[in-house]
Amino acid sequence: MPALFQAFRHGTLPAGGRIIGVGRDDMSDEQYRNLIRSRFDQVELAKRPSQDEFTRFADLLEFVRMDLSKPADYARLTATLARRKADTVVMYVATAPSLFTTVCEQLAAAGLNTPQTRVVLEKPLGHDLASNRAINETVRRVLGERQVFRIDHYLGKPAVQNLFALRFGNALFEPLWRREHIANIQITIAEELGVEQRGAFYETTGALRDMVQNHALQLLCAIGMEPPINSHADAIRDEKLKVLRSLKPWTAEALAQDVIRGQYGAGTVAGAPVIAYREETGVNPQSHTETFVALRTEISNWRWAGVPFYIRTGKRLAGRDARIVVNFRPTPHAIFNSQIGVANRLVINLQPKDGLELHLLAQGQDNRRNSQTLAPVQLDLDFDKRFGTERVGAYERLLLDVIDGRLNLFVRSDEQEEAWRWVEPILEHWKNDMQGPRLYAGGTWGPSASSAMIARDGFCWSEES
Ligand code: BG6
Question: For a tag on the chain, would you pick the N or C end, based on fewer CB atoms within 10 A?
């Protein structure tokens, strides 16, 4: 809803459009509008509507009471939609995955799966390969693949689109973007937040399903894929699929050494004390659910063979920080004395701010001694400064893409299945590993085993260098 409001504010929502809320509560349109109004209090100030703006936005809002599990209720939606003819109907399905099948079947039974219909599916789309496949099969029975928009909001983040621009709009990095020049790549998605009110959901999900199977792997695809033959959705998705298919298969040894799971204990985040995961509402006090994952993988193809890709994500970490760090190889032979520092590195910052940092070595300032001491310097491209802070946010961008029928930034079913296929051995391994996740104090960078894992290759996480 905040994203739709931003689109409304920016004047990009199609004229004459309607936003129809669907839910089990017995609410009038007016009550629904008041509910939405009250929820905007939780949105950051700059993105809240003024009274006048909300009055105009509220004109678009309607509510239909409907229990999605009851076939008879679909007639209400049909009747509401029939009141005004629409060129496009976008159904945004953010329900429990157990309802996806029913929803699709009932949409078809009610004749709502017309060529004008587009369906957005919010994750989790299943909890393993089999359940994901089952969902995809039902969806396929009633909708064409071009009508299905599997959303991964990380693909809508401006920094990810900039990554495509950096890689495929410039020739500069392409010759370097390979095993001969890159030592390792690190993808970090760190959150300060805990599980908040989603304890019960998170208990059966965990960080691997919540963040790695989707967001982190999509980032890995964006960084590792070959240049697509054009910018069409399937050209891009074909290349991402190839990356997922090339991920090194897991061996028992790799599962034991290269995947670290953690769970937050009590600690301090941003100066405030926080409770342990096991004390959160809805969480089993003996829970083995992971709130942190760090892993090492490789893309087994000519471009990347042997280059470690590290993925790390977790809740209650030391900062809200999502970034991709590309560490280039050092010079083959050193002719300067260089101070210790970070160089030969490209950082793609996703949040809290998005931008690029290129870390180089430059001649230091010590003219007196006329010494050839190099010092690390940083070239910054701050996208907020360059393009302003009022840029289109991830969900806003993605929703507008759905309305326009652009699938580039949405995930195809085969990509999703391949990602599940790859994470499944990890889930299986954990099922049989009675040790459970390692505890880490809230407000740290996760269990020390995560640093030990990367140190085995002779590297360290970017914040440790
Ligand atoms: C969601 C996860 O997909 O992404 C949440 O379900 C997580 O657990 C969120 O907090 C992170 O998104 P962002 O955009 O805040 O990094």
Answer: C
Q: Are 38 and 30 in contact (CB under 8 A)?
A: no
Residue where the block lists tokens 């629904």: 32
Under 8 Å between Cβ of 216 and 313: yes
273-295 pLDDT, tens digit per residue, is 999 999 999 999 999 999 999 99
**Annotated catalytic sites, by residue?**
215
List of residues 6+ apart from 14 with CB closer than 8 A: 88, 403
> Residue for token digits 């001694």?
369
Q: Which neighbouring-strand residues pair with 21?
A: 63
Which residues make Cβ contacts (< 8 Å) with residue 349, sequence separation at least 6? 159, 322, 323, 355, 356, 357
| Residues of the chain under the 50 pLDDT cut | none
pLDDT computed for residue 124 by the predictor = 85
Fold of 155-393+412-464: Dihydrodipicolinate Reductase; domain 2 (3.30.360)
What is the distance in A from the centroid of ligand 1 to the CA of 269?
A: 18
CATH class belonging to 2-152: alpha beta
Q: How far is the CA of 211 from the centre of ligand 1 (A)?
A: 7
Q: The pTM is what?
A: 0.95
Measured at the alpha carbon of residue 230, what is the angle toward residues 227 and 232, in degrees to the nearest 5? 115
The pLDDT assigned to 372 comes to 65
The ranges of the chain annotated as CATH 3.30.360.10 are 155-393+412-464
DSSP E strands in 191-338: the ranges are 259-269, 272-274, 292-297, 309-314, 321-328, 337-338
